[in-house]
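> @MW can you paste both from yesterday?
MW: sure, first one:
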Amino acid sequence: MAGTFEGRVALVTGAASGIGRATALAFAREGAKVIVADVEVVGGQQTVREIKQSDGQAIFVKCDVSETEQVASMVSRCVETYGKIDCAFNNAGILGDLASTTECTDESFDQIIRVNLKGVWLCMKFEILQMLKQGGGVIVNAGSDAGLAGRPGLLAYSTSKGGVIQLTRTAALEYVRSNIRINAVCPGLILTPMVAGQKKRDPELVAGLIEQLPAGRAGEPEEVAETVIWLCSDAASYVTGHLMAVDGGNLAR
Protein backbone atom coordinates (compact mmCIF):
# COMPACT_ATOMS: atom_id res chain seq x y z
CA MET A 1 0.00 0.00 0.00
CA ALA A 2 2.85 2.39 -0.81
CA GLY A 3 1.67 5.99 -0.52
CA THR A 4 -1.74 5.06 0.91
CA PHE A 5 -1.56 7.94 3.40
CA GLU A 6 0.25 10.50 1.27
CA GLY A 7 -0.87 13.98 2.35
CA ARG A 8 -2.54 12.69 5.51
CA VAL A 9 -1.71 13.27 9.16
CA ALA A 10 -1.66 10.45 11.72
CA LEU A 11 -1.52 10.73 15.51
CA VAL A 12 -0.24 7.72 17.48
CA THR A 13 -0.21 7.67 21.29
CA GLY A 14 2.03 5.29 23.17
CA ALA A 15 4.39 5.47 20.21
CA ALA A 16 7.68 5.25 22.12
CA SER A 17 7.84 1.47 21.75
CA GLY A 18 6.01 -1.72 20.86
CA ILE A 19 2.79 -1.58 18.88
CA GLY A 20 2.71 2.22 18.95
CA ARG A 21 6.19 2.56 17.47
CA ALA A 22 5.49 -0.09 14.83
CA THR A 23 2.29 1.72 13.84
CA ALA A 24 3.95 5.14 13.69
CA LEU A 25 6.64 3.69 11.41
CA ALA A 26 3.99 2.03 9.24
CA PHE A 27 2.05 5.28 8.84
CA ALA A 28 5.25 7.09 7.87
CA ARG A 29 6.14 4.35 5.38
CA GLU A 30 2.78 4.93 3.71
CA GLY A 31 3.42 8.67 3.39
CA ALA A 32 1.68 10.11 6.45
CA LYS A 33 3.03 12.93 8.57
CA VAL A 34 3.13 11.42 12.05
CA ILE A 35 2.64 12.84 15.52
CA VAL A 36 4.48 10.54 17.92
CA ALA A 37 2.97 10.97 21.38
CA ASP A 38 4.08 9.33 24.61
CA VAL A 39 4.95 10.08 28.21
CA GLU A 40 8.35 8.44 27.57
CA VAL A 41 10.53 11.12 25.97
CA VAL A 42 13.60 9.07 25.02
CA GLY A 43 11.63 6.34 23.28
CA GLY A 44 9.34 8.81 21.57
CA GLN A 45 12.24 10.79 20.18
CA GLN A 46 13.84 7.56 18.97
CA THR A 47 10.66 6.73 17.03
CA VAL A 48 10.83 10.16 15.39
CA ARG A 49 14.48 9.62 14.48
CA GLU A 50 13.68 6.28 12.86
CA ILE A 51 10.93 7.90 10.79
CA LYS A 52 13.18 10.74 9.67
CA GLN A 53 16.01 8.33 8.81
CA SER A 54 13.60 6.82 6.27
CA ASP A 55 12.80 10.29 4.88
CA GLY A 56 9.48 10.51 6.70
CA GLN A 57 8.00 13.46 8.58
CA ALA A 58 7.27 13.33 12.30
CA ILE A 59 7.28 15.32 15.52
CA PHE A 60 7.28 14.16 19.14
CA VAL A 61 4.76 15.42 21.68
CA LYS A 62 5.06 14.46 25.33
CA CYS A 63 1.63 13.59 26.68
CA ASP A 64 0.12 11.83 29.66
CA VAL A 65 -3.19 10.71 28.15
CA SER A 66 -4.87 10.61 31.56
CA GLU A 67 -4.52 14.40 31.91
CA THR A 68 -7.16 16.50 30.13
CA GLU A 69 -4.98 19.55 29.61
CA GLN A 70 -2.13 17.50 28.14
CA VAL A 71 -4.43 15.71 25.69
CA ALA A 72 -6.01 18.98 24.58
CA SER A 73 -2.54 20.47 24.13
CA MET A 74 -1.39 17.41 22.14
CA VAL A 75 -4.27 17.74 19.68
CA SER A 76 -3.69 21.49 19.38
CA ARG A 77 0.00 20.88 18.66
CA CYS A 78 -0.94 18.41 15.91
CA VAL A 79 -3.20 20.95 14.23
CA GLU A 80 -0.74 23.82 14.67
CA THR A 81 2.03 21.75 13.06
CA TYR A 82 0.23 19.87 10.29
CA GLY A 83 -3.18 21.56 10.03
CA LYS A 84 -5.39 18.55 10.73
CA ILE A 85 -5.67 14.99 12.08
CA ASP A 86 -6.83 12.45 9.51
CA CYS A 87 -6.12 9.32 11.55
CA ALA A 88 -5.58 8.62 15.23
CA PHE A 89 -4.45 5.44 16.95
CA ASN A 90 -5.20 5.69 20.69
CA ASN A 91 -2.72 3.09 21.81
CA ALA A 92 -1.22 4.38 25.07
CA GLY A 93 -1.85 1.98 27.92
CA ILE A 94 -0.37 0.04 30.82
CA LEU A 95 -0.66 -3.54 32.05
CA GLY A 96 -0.35 -2.62 35.70
CA ASP A 97 -0.25 -5.12 38.53
CA LEU A 98 -1.51 -8.64 37.89
CA ALA A 99 -4.20 -9.19 40.50
CA SER A 100 -7.49 -10.98 41.01
CA THR A 101 -10.75 -9.29 42.00
CA THR A 102 -10.05 -9.51 45.75
CA GLU A 103 -6.30 -8.85 45.49
CA CYS A 104 -6.46 -5.71 43.32
CA THR A 105 -5.70 -2.55 45.28
CA ASP A 106 -7.51 0.77 44.99
CA GLU A 107 -4.34 2.44 43.73
CA SER A 108 -3.67 -0.15 41.02
CA PHE A 109 -7.27 -0.21 39.82
CA ASP A 110 -7.49 3.58 39.65
CA GLN A 111 -4.19 3.94 37.78
CA ILE A 112 -5.04 1.33 35.13
CA ILE A 113 -8.54 2.73 34.55
CA ARG A 114 -7.19 6.29 34.43
CA VAL A 115 -4.64 5.52 31.71
CA ASN A 116 -6.30 2.75 29.69
CA LEU A 117 -9.93 3.87 29.79
CA LYS A 118 -10.09 7.55 30.69
CA GLY A 119 -7.05 8.15 28.48
CA VAL A 120 -8.75 6.69 25.42
CA TRP A 121 -11.92 8.66 26.12
CA LEU A 122 -10.00 11.93 26.46
CA CYS A 123 -8.07 11.32 23.25
CA MET A 124 -11.27 10.48 21.36
CA LYS A 125 -13.02 13.53 22.76
CA PHE A 126 -10.48 16.04 21.48
CA GLU A 127 -9.75 14.14 18.26
CA ILE A 128 -13.45 14.02 17.41
CA LEU A 129 -13.88 17.73 18.12
CA GLN A 130 -11.11 18.43 15.61
CA MET A 131 -12.45 15.93 13.07
CA LEU A 132 -15.89 17.53 13.24
CA LYS A 133 -14.30 20.86 12.32
CA GLN A 134 -12.41 19.41 9.36
CA GLY A 135 -15.23 17.20 8.03
CA GLY A 136 -14.19 13.73 9.10
CA GLY A 137 -11.44 11.34 10.11
CA VAL A 138 -10.67 7.85 11.37
CA ILE A 139 -9.93 6.65 14.90
CA VAL A 140 -8.66 3.26 16.04
CA ASN A 141 -8.58 2.46 19.74
CA ALA A 142 -6.34 -0.12 21.36
CA GLY A 143 -8.54 -2.77 22.90
CA SER A 144 -7.39 -6.27 23.79
CA ASP A 145 -8.60 -9.84 23.61
CA ALA A 146 -8.71 -9.45 27.39
CA GLY A 147 -11.55 -6.98 26.86
CA LEU A 148 -13.52 -9.55 24.87
CA ALA A 149 -13.08 -12.55 27.16
CA GLY A 150 -12.45 -13.10 30.87
CA ARG A 151 -8.81 -13.13 31.95
CA PRO A 152 -8.31 -14.35 35.54
CA GLY A 153 -5.66 -12.31 37.33
CA LEU A 154 -6.11 -9.32 35.04
CA LEU A 155 -9.11 -7.78 36.74
CA ALA A 156 -8.32 -4.08 36.25
CA TYR A 157 -6.68 -4.46 32.85
CA SER A 158 -9.53 -6.57 31.44
CA THR A 159 -12.08 -4.13 32.84
CA SER A 160 -10.30 -1.15 31.27
CA LYS A 161 -10.15 -2.83 27.86
CA GLY A 162 -13.79 -3.89 28.07
CA GLY A 163 -14.58 -0.24 28.67
CA VAL A 164 -12.57 0.77 25.59
CA ILE A 165 -14.73 -1.58 23.53
CA GLN A 166 -17.91 0.15 24.67
CA LEU A 167 -16.38 3.60 24.15
CA THR A 168 -15.58 2.51 20.60
CA ARG A 169 -19.02 1.12 19.81
CA THR A 170 -20.88 4.08 21.29
CA ALA A 171 -18.77 6.78 19.65
CA ALA A 172 -18.87 4.94 16.31
CA LEU A 173 -22.66 5.16 16.32
CA GLU A 174 -22.66 8.77 17.47
CA TYR A 175 -20.39 10.07 14.71
CA VAL A 176 -20.81 7.74 11.73
CA ARG A 177 -22.95 10.34 9.93
CA SER A 178 -20.30 12.97 10.54
CA ASN A 179 -17.85 11.04 8.35
CA ILE A 180 -15.88 9.78 11.36
CA ARG A 181 -15.13 6.08 11.55
CA ILE A 182 -14.14 4.57 14.92
CA ASN A 183 -12.92 1.00 15.39
CA ALA A 184 -10.83 -0.98 17.86
CA VAL A 185 -7.99 -3.40 17.35
CA CYS A 186 -7.86 -6.15 19.98
CA PRO A 187 -4.41 -7.75 20.18
CA GLY A 188 -3.71 -11.01 21.91
CA LEU A 189 -0.27 -11.86 23.24
CA ILE A 190 2.15 -9.60 21.33
CA LEU A 191 5.93 -9.43 21.83
CA THR A 192 6.06 -5.88 23.20
CA PRO A 193 8.22 -4.39 25.99
CA MET A 194 5.18 -4.86 28.25
CA VAL A 195 5.26 -8.62 27.64
CA ALA A 196 9.06 -8.67 27.88
CA GLY A 197 8.82 -7.11 31.33
CA GLN A 198 6.31 -9.73 32.43
CA LYS A 199 8.54 -12.46 30.99
CA LYS A 200 11.42 -11.29 33.19
CA ARG A 201 9.19 -11.42 36.26
CA ASP A 202 7.58 -14.77 35.44
CA PRO A 203 9.11 -16.55 32.42
CA GLU A 204 7.17 -19.76 33.05
CA LEU A 205 3.84 -17.92 32.96
CA VAL A 206 4.58 -16.27 29.61
CA ALA A 207 5.96 -19.49 28.11
CA GLY A 208 2.81 -21.30 29.20
CA LEU A 209 0.57 -18.65 27.67
CA ILE A 210 2.42 -18.85 24.34
CA GLU A 211 2.22 -22.65 24.33
CA GLN A 212 -1.57 -22.46 24.70
CA LEU A 213 -2.06 -20.15 21.73
CA PRO A 214 -3.68 -21.81 18.68
CA ALA A 215 -1.06 -20.19 16.41
CA GLY A 216 1.72 -21.66 18.54
CA ARG A 217 3.51 -18.31 18.82
CA ALA A 218 3.07 -14.79 20.09
CA GLY A 219 2.36 -11.98 17.65
CA GLU A 220 4.71 -9.23 16.50
CA PRO A 221 3.96 -5.49 16.93
CA GLU A 222 4.15 -5.06 13.15
CA GLU A 223 1.26 -7.49 12.68
CA VAL A 224 -0.98 -5.29 14.82
CA ALA A 225 0.32 -2.17 13.07
CA GLU A 226 -0.73 -3.49 9.66
CA THR A 227 -4.24 -4.06 10.99
CA VAL A 228 -4.43 -0.48 12.27
CA ILE A 229 -3.19 0.80 8.92
CA TRP A 230 -5.92 -1.13 7.10
CA LEU A 231 -8.65 0.10 9.44
CA CYS A 232 -7.51 3.69 8.83
CA SER A 233 -7.29 3.26 5.06
CA ASP A 234 -9.95 3.88 2.43
CA ALA A 235 -10.09 0.10 1.93
CA ALA A 236 -12.04 0.00 5.23
CA SER A 237 -14.36 2.88 4.31
CA TYR A 238 -17.52 0.96 5.31
CA VAL A 239 -16.07 -0.41 8.56
CA THR A 240 -17.01 1.31 11.82
CA GLY A 241 -17.80 0.13 15.33
CA HIS A 242 -15.78 -3.01 14.59
CA LEU A 243 -13.61 -4.90 17.09
CA MET A 244 -10.82 -6.63 15.18
CA ALA A 245 -8.96 -9.35 17.07
CA VAL A 246 -5.30 -9.90 16.19
CA ASP A 247 -4.70 -12.85 18.45
CA GLY A 248 -3.57 -15.91 16.52
CA GLY A 249 -6.99 -17.53 16.88
CA ASN A 250 -7.16 -17.25 20.66
CA LEU A 251 -10.76 -16.02 20.77
CA ALA A 252 -11.91 -18.64 18.26
CA ARG A 253 -11.63 -21.42 20.85
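MW: second:
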Amino acid sequence: MAPRPEGPSTDTYARAAGILYLIIIVCALFSEVVVRSGLVIPGDAAATASNISRSEFLFRFGLVSDVVAFLSDVVVAVLLYVLLRPVNRVFSLAAAGFRLTGTAIYGVNLLNHLAPLLLLGGSDYLGVFDPGQVEALALFFLELHGNGYDLGLVFFGFHCLAVGYLLYKSGFFPMILGVLMVLAGAAYLIGSGTLFLFPDRADAVAFVYVAPLIGELAFGLWLVIRGVRAPL
Protein backbone atom coordinates (compact mmCIF):
# COMPACT_ATOMS: atom_id res chain seq x y z
CA MET A 1 0.00 0.00 0.00
CA ALA A 2 1.40 3.37 -0.99
CA PRO A 3 1.46 6.22 1.53
CA ARG A 4 -1.19 8.86 0.99
CA PRO A 5 0.36 11.94 -0.65
CA GLU A 6 0.98 14.45 2.10
CA GLY A 7 0.56 18.19 2.29
CA PRO A 8 -2.25 20.57 3.15
CA SER A 9 -3.00 21.18 -0.53
CA THR A 10 -3.28 17.55 -1.65
CA ASP A 11 -7.07 17.62 -1.87
CA THR A 12 -6.88 21.02 -3.53
CA TYR A 13 -4.60 19.56 -6.20
CA ALA A 14 -6.93 16.59 -6.63
CA ARG A 15 -10.04 18.71 -7.03
CA ALA A 16 -8.26 21.10 -9.38
CA ALA A 17 -7.18 18.12 -11.50
CA GLY A 18 -10.75 16.82 -11.45
CA ILE A 19 -12.27 20.13 -12.53
CA LEU A 20 -9.73 20.48 -15.33
CA TYR A 21 -10.31 16.85 -16.37
CA LEU A 22 -14.04 17.54 -16.72
CA ILE A 23 -13.28 20.70 -18.69
CA ILE A 24 -11.07 18.63 -21.01
CA ILE A 25 -13.86 16.09 -21.57
CA VAL A 26 -16.48 18.77 -22.29
CA CYS A 27 -14.22 20.79 -24.60
CA ALA A 28 -12.95 17.75 -26.49
CA LEU A 29 -16.45 16.34 -26.98
CA PHE A 30 -17.72 19.73 -28.16
CA SER A 31 -14.91 20.14 -30.69
CA GLU A 32 -15.15 16.61 -32.04
CA VAL A 33 -18.86 15.77 -31.81
CA VAL A 34 -20.56 19.15 -32.24
CA VAL A 35 -18.09 20.98 -34.48
CA ARG A 36 -16.11 18.57 -36.66
CA SER A 37 -18.61 15.71 -36.82
CA GLY A 38 -21.40 18.23 -37.40
CA LEU A 39 -19.69 20.15 -40.20
CA VAL A 40 -17.41 17.64 -41.91
CA ILE A 41 -19.07 15.34 -44.44
CA PRO A 42 -16.70 12.42 -45.16
CA GLY A 43 -16.01 12.11 -48.88
CA ASP A 44 -17.93 15.29 -49.78
CA ALA A 45 -15.48 18.18 -50.08
CA ALA A 46 -18.02 20.64 -51.49
CA ALA A 47 -20.58 20.07 -48.72
CA THR A 48 -17.88 20.25 -46.05
CA ALA A 49 -16.53 23.53 -47.44
CA SER A 50 -20.05 24.96 -47.57
CA ASN A 51 -20.73 23.96 -43.97
CA ILE A 52 -17.48 25.51 -42.74
CA SER A 53 -18.08 28.74 -44.68
CA ARG A 54 -21.63 29.06 -43.31
CA SER A 55 -20.56 28.23 -39.74
CA GLU A 56 -17.10 29.79 -39.65
CA PHE A 57 -17.44 31.11 -36.10
CA LEU A 58 -18.51 27.69 -34.82
CA PHE A 59 -15.55 26.09 -36.59
CA ARG A 60 -13.18 28.65 -35.06
CA PHE A 61 -14.78 28.17 -31.65
CA GLY A 62 -14.10 24.45 -31.98
CA LEU A 63 -10.41 25.25 -32.41
CA VAL A 64 -10.43 27.51 -29.34
CA SER A 65 -12.22 24.79 -27.37
CA ASP A 66 -9.44 22.37 -28.28
CA VAL A 67 -6.82 24.89 -27.19
CA VAL A 68 -8.51 25.16 -23.78
CA ALA A 69 -8.57 21.36 -23.49
CA PHE A 70 -4.90 20.99 -24.37
CA LEU A 71 -3.78 23.76 -22.01
CA SER A 72 -5.75 22.01 -19.27
CA ASP A 73 -4.07 18.74 -20.27
CA VAL A 74 -0.66 20.16 -19.43
CA VAL A 75 -1.77 21.18 -15.94
CA VAL A 76 -3.53 17.84 -15.34
CA ALA A 77 -0.36 15.96 -16.33
CA VAL A 78 1.60 17.85 -13.65
CA LEU A 79 -1.08 17.50 -10.97
CA LEU A 80 -1.51 13.76 -11.53
CA TYR A 81 2.25 13.32 -11.32
CA VAL A 82 2.24 15.07 -7.93
CA LEU A 83 -0.71 13.01 -6.68
CA LEU A 84 0.53 9.62 -7.89
CA ARG A 85 4.30 9.82 -7.40
CA PRO A 86 4.07 8.34 -3.85
CA VAL A 87 2.81 5.14 -5.48
CA ASN A 88 5.63 4.78 -7.99
CA ARG A 89 7.72 7.77 -9.02
CA VAL A 90 8.93 6.23 -12.29
CA PHE A 91 5.47 5.16 -13.45
CA SER A 92 4.05 8.54 -12.45
CA LEU A 93 6.74 10.35 -14.42
CA ALA A 94 6.18 8.06 -17.41
CA ALA A 95 2.45 8.74 -17.25
CA ALA A 96 3.07 12.48 -17.28
CA GLY A 97 5.52 12.12 -20.15
CA PHE A 98 3.06 10.14 -22.26
CA ARG A 99 0.29 12.65 -21.63
CA LEU A 100 2.48 15.66 -22.40
CA THR A 101 3.76 14.04 -25.59
CA GLY A 102 0.21 13.37 -26.73
CA THR A 103 -0.77 16.93 -25.88
CA ALA A 104 2.14 18.30 -27.93
CA ILE A 105 0.94 16.24 -30.91
CA TYR A 106 -2.62 17.51 -30.46
CA GLY A 107 -1.39 21.09 -30.32
CA VAL A 108 0.65 20.90 -33.52
CA ASN A 109 -2.19 18.96 -35.15
CA LEU A 110 -4.51 21.96 -34.66
CA LEU A 111 -2.77 23.51 -37.66
CA ASN A 112 -4.65 20.95 -39.74
CA HIS A 113 -7.91 22.22 -38.22
CA LEU A 114 -6.89 25.79 -39.05
CA ALA A 115 -5.80 25.02 -42.63
CA PRO A 116 -9.35 24.78 -44.10
CA LEU A 117 -10.12 28.26 -42.79
CA LEU A 118 -7.07 29.62 -44.58
CA LEU A 119 -7.87 27.72 -47.76
CA LEU A 120 -11.52 28.79 -47.83
CA GLY A 121 -10.74 32.37 -46.83
CA GLY A 122 -10.55 33.57 -50.42
CA SER A 123 -6.98 34.88 -50.39
CA ASP A 124 -5.80 36.12 -53.78
CA TYR A 125 -2.80 33.77 -53.95
CA LEU A 126 -5.16 30.79 -53.89
CA GLY A 127 -6.53 31.89 -57.26
CA VAL A 128 -4.11 29.45 -58.92
CA PHE A 129 -6.42 26.64 -57.71
CA ASP A 130 -9.94 26.11 -58.95
CA PRO A 131 -12.70 26.00 -56.28
CA GLY A 132 -12.94 22.20 -56.40
CA GLN A 133 -9.24 21.83 -55.70
CA VAL A 134 -9.43 24.24 -52.76
CA GLU A 135 -12.37 22.31 -51.29
CA ALA A 136 -10.55 19.01 -51.77
CA LEU A 137 -7.48 20.38 -49.99
CA ALA A 138 -9.64 21.61 -47.11
CA LEU A 139 -11.13 18.13 -46.65
CA PHE A 140 -7.67 16.56 -46.94
CA PHE A 141 -6.37 18.65 -44.04
CA LEU A 142 -9.40 17.72 -41.95
CA GLU A 143 -8.75 14.05 -42.60
CA LEU A 144 -5.11 14.62 -41.73
CA HIS A 145 -6.28 16.24 -38.50
CA GLY A 146 -8.28 13.12 -37.65
CA ASN A 147 -5.27 10.89 -38.17
CA GLY A 148 -3.06 13.26 -36.20
CA TYR A 149 -5.50 13.15 -33.31
CA ASP A 150 -5.40 9.36 -33.32
CA LEU A 151 -1.61 9.46 -33.29
CA GLY A 152 -1.76 11.56 -30.12
CA LEU A 153 -4.22 9.08 -28.63
CA VAL A 154 -1.57 6.34 -28.89
CA PHE A 155 0.53 8.23 -26.33
CA PHE A 156 -2.55 9.11 -24.30
CA GLY A 157 -3.53 5.45 -24.27
CA PHE A 158 -0.23 4.55 -22.61
CA HIS A 159 -0.80 7.41 -20.16
CA CYS A 160 -4.15 5.89 -19.18
CA LEU A 161 -2.57 2.44 -18.74
CA ALA A 162 0.08 3.87 -16.41
CA VAL A 163 -2.41 5.96 -14.45
CA GLY A 164 -4.73 2.97 -14.17
CA TYR A 165 -1.93 0.87 -12.71
CA LEU A 166 -1.06 3.61 -10.23
CA LEU A 167 -4.67 4.09 -9.16
CA TYR A 168 -5.10 0.34 -8.68
CA LYS A 169 -1.96 0.07 -6.52
CA SER A 170 -2.37 3.34 -4.63
CA GLY A 171 -4.66 2.43 -1.74
CA PHE A 172 -6.07 5.96 -1.71
CA PHE A 173 -8.19 5.59 -4.85
CA PRO A 174 -10.79 2.84 -5.47
CA MET A 175 -9.34 -0.08 -7.41
CA ILE A 176 -12.27 0.10 -9.84
CA LEU A 177 -11.01 3.49 -11.06
CA GLY A 178 -7.71 1.85 -11.91
CA VAL A 179 -9.48 -0.90 -13.85
CA LEU A 180 -11.60 1.64 -15.74
CA MET A 181 -8.56 3.71 -16.68
CA VAL A 182 -6.70 0.61 -17.91
CA LEU A 183 -9.72 -0.24 -20.06
CA ALA A 184 -9.73 3.35 -21.34
CA GLY A 185 -6.07 3.09 -22.33
CA ALA A 186 -6.65 -0.24 -24.05
CA ALA A 187 -9.60 1.25 -25.96
CA TYR A 188 -7.49 4.15 -27.25
CA LEU A 189 -4.76 1.77 -28.40
CA ILE A 190 -7.27 -0.54 -30.09
CA GLY A 191 -9.01 2.35 -31.83
CA SER A 192 -5.86 4.05 -33.10
CA GLY A 193 -4.12 0.78 -33.92
CA THR A 194 -7.08 -0.34 -36.01
CA LEU A 195 -7.21 2.99 -37.84
CA PHE A 196 -3.53 2.84 -38.77
CA LEU A 197 -3.31 -0.90 -39.58
CA PHE A 198 -6.81 -1.71 -40.84
CA PRO A 199 -8.47 1.61 -41.73
CA ASP A 200 -11.43 -0.08 -43.41
CA ARG A 201 -12.35 -1.67 -40.06
CA ALA A 202 -12.01 1.46 -37.92
CA ASP A 203 -15.77 2.02 -37.72
CA ALA A 204 -16.26 -1.56 -36.52
CA VAL A 205 -14.33 -0.88 -33.31
CA ALA A 206 -15.72 2.61 -32.65
CA PHE A 207 -17.77 1.19 -29.77
CA VAL A 208 -14.60 0.77 -27.68
CA TYR A 209 -14.54 4.53 -27.06
CA VAL A 210 -17.37 4.07 -24.58
CA ALA A 211 -14.73 2.75 -22.16
CA PRO A 212 -12.66 5.98 -22.07
CA LEU A 213 -15.79 8.09 -21.69
CA ILE A 214 -16.88 6.07 -18.65
CA GLY A 215 -13.41 5.70 -17.14
CA GLU A 216 -12.21 9.27 -17.52
CA LEU A 217 -15.54 10.76 -16.50
CA ALA A 218 -15.62 8.57 -13.38
CA PHE A 219 -12.04 9.52 -12.49
CA GLY A 220 -12.69 13.23 -13.01
CA LEU A 221 -15.87 13.17 -10.92
CA TRP A 222 -14.13 11.22 -8.14
CA LEU A 223 -11.34 13.79 -7.98
CA VAL A 224 -13.84 16.64 -7.77
CA ILE A 225 -16.19 15.03 -5.25
CA ARG A 226 -13.88 12.97 -3.05
CA GLY A 227 -10.38 14.22 -3.71
CA VAL A 228 -7.72 11.91 -2.26
CA ARG A 229 -9.10 9.71 0.49
CA ALA A 230 -7.30 8.02 3.36
CA PRO A 231 -5.57 4.70 2.55
CA LEU A 232 -7.85 1.67 2.38
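> thanks! The CA atoms of residues 156 and 187 lie 11 Å apart.
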